[in-house]
Amino acid sequence: MLNQLIKQAAADVAAPSRRGFLKGAGGALVLGAMLPRTGFASEAAAPKVVGPADPRPQAFIRIAADDTVTVLVKHLDKGQGIMTGLTTIVAEELDADWAQMRGAFAPADGALYANHFFGIQGTGGSTAVANSWDELRMAGAAARAMLVATAAARWSVPASSVTVEKGVVRHAASNRSARFGELAEDAAKLPVPQNVALKDAKDYTLIGNPSLHRLDHVSKTDGTAIFAMDIRRPGQVTAVMARSPRFGGTVKSVDAAAAKRVPGVLEVLTVPRGVAVVAKNTWAAMKGREALTVEWDDAKAEMRGTDEMIADYRKLADQPGNVATNTGEAEKALAGAAKVVEAEFVFPYLAHAPMEPLNATVELTPDGGCTIWAGSQFQGVEQKVVAAMLGCKPEQVVINTVWAGGSFGRRATTDADYIAEAVSIAKAYGGKAPVHLVWTREDDIHGGRYRPLFLHKVKAGLDASGTLVAWRQKIVGQSFMSGTPFEAVMVKNGVDATSVEGSSDMAYAVPNLYVDLQSPASPVTTLWWRSVGHTHTAYAKEVMIDELAAAAGKDPVAFRLEMLKDHPRLLGVLKLAAEKAGWGGQPLPKGKGRGIAVHESFSSFVAHVAEVSVDDKGRITIDRVVCAVDCGQVVNPNIVEAQISGGTGWAIGHALRDEITLTGGLVDQSNFDTYQPLRNSEMPPVEVHILPSAARPTGVGEPGVPTAAPAVANAVFAATGKRLHHLPFTRSGMV
């Protein structure tokens, strides 16, 4: 499972040698640290020193003459707060003043900025903080040591007598001090220290501090933050694409005469993924596209509707699949069980629908390469794909990463997707001008890369005492790893790890567990979607566990506690969420219900309790949500709270009513009127409680999603006795 592979990467660590690099440039100090492609599995395993200098440095820190400290962030910040969180890690070890800290996106350079969990530069899997934790602490500590050494040499005093506090280097005995900017140029000339001490957590003043403001809060409030949609290059033209209305369709013929007569349209180009209209502005490009006449070849297209696909999935679920987990003898145990509970779960295709639609600007360069401006999430993939398209070297593909208005996984594709589209248009246009490719909201909703459609059939058995003794789960859904560069790692014996994560490795103690998978192919393009496989496996698991608790005549929390005795961190969040929600206290009045769910994903542990009201027309109101999270050492508690709250709203909104459906292979939804995110007026109050932890930091961008929807579903059952197995809830008559 993706979660397990990330854990394994973190545990697969070589010796304690850690490497650093320093150079001076224009009066600035530039420092970095090179790590192997994994982090430390635990703080106990992490040494307190850094090893010899590395001949392949990474640069992370720039200290300017004006005392500003800029941290180069190798991950994309798409709203999740990474720019602030990673800058905080450096500032802590540097003993900087938060007011002097700045953040900037690092250039695309896999040799310097690879994600150590992926092996390429990229953001995803809630890995940004976990991946950068050690290297940025060491970079900050090394920079501090070099500033101290510079000051000590100037003042002819021992380095041990020099202190640093809030960006000022001091020697108390002689009452001398210097600012970072005064020392940076000379510090840059020093050799990188071979051994650098890292702070103990008890000495942190910035990490874990709830009073730090986000670095992007002003620019995103006053409109000065630059997103990909804001890029304007000299002579820039705009392009929109006409793509096949059916997945797998291709261009048969094009009549562009009417489109070319639209004022502002410059050219109509057939490219590998469809027909591009290039114009002086976005409106002209869109009107030109409307005037196109394109005949599509549907010979290899998906022609089925959603109901037909689900029917096909049901047939597959009744057949033997590829075994993901098989411990004990599930069939035998089910045959001998005192009580058996069965359920079928259906999960629809879901779009990512980030607020900023996909877009990128491409400018071809005289050396045969290009420069790209985009909210780039997988720079390592994009450089290689574009280089192959242009016949140049990857380093000739310059990617300027800018702020992205959301992603939820959509910008991290294994084939460079929309960026490859933009490059193909710029190439076909002959490099006459920079090309800004813009997707409309309809393009985005119709464009695929959906969370796959899944069907689960679960059968579980209890013994006479109400103990869970058997669990059999049949899962059917598309693999988005097959046919990609990640297939060799993520697909084993026909099992896509991202399809079964959260089921095949579930924490509940069940002696007889069987999970298998069928991965039918379809031209419908699918992709990871915020919390990936856990979006459906956690739901099936937690709703089924609730049903089993009811069949056993046990309290849902008590039933879970019995089966999680070997998982203290899951127990911790389960108990805390239940306690803060008042579980087991005053009964709720008629028409109201309380539900709970708990799950581990991306090495973080989360429990949700939801309280709902359901009226006689089946209308659900979420009155209150209480959440407990254990994500290890917390860098910024406000960002943790924001991400868990946001994940909660994201999950609830999709569970209530969202789905992508097909009729004859055509997508039925088109914009936010037919694919409706949760409105602000519907967002329930969310309480987030963070368990204190000394463990290494893990992710929060995705783990807030998996347990929110099943907690609501279980609350609806408590209020109405109705089980919600087919998502969205509107499919079960709830509104």
Produce the secondary structure layout.
Layout: H1 2-11, E1 19-25, E2 28-34, E3 61-63, E4 69-73, H2 82-94, E5 101-105, H3 110-113, H4 128-155, E6 163-165, E7 168-171, E8 176-179, H5 180-187, H6 219-222, E9 237-242, E10 250-255, H7 257-260, E11 265-271, E12 274-279, H8 282-291, E13 293-297, H9 306-317, E14 322-327, H10 330-335, E15 339-347, E16 359-364, E17 370-374, H11 379-390, E18 397-401, H12 417-428, E19 435-438, H13 441-446, E20 454-462, E21 468-477, H14 487-490, E22 491-492, E23 495-496, H15 497-500, E24 513-518, H16 534-552, H17 556-563, H18 568-581, E25 592-601, E26 604-614, E27 620-630, H19 637-657, E28 662-663, E29 666-667, E30 686-690, H20 708-720
Parallel strand pairs: 4-5, 9-19, 17-18, 21-24, 27-30
Antiparallel strand pairs: 1-2, 2-3, 3-4, 6-7, 7-8, 9-12, 10-13, 11-12, 14-24, 15-20, 16-17, 16-19, 20-21, 22-23, 25-26, 26-27, 28-29
Helix pairs in contact: 2-4, 4-5, 11-12, 16-20
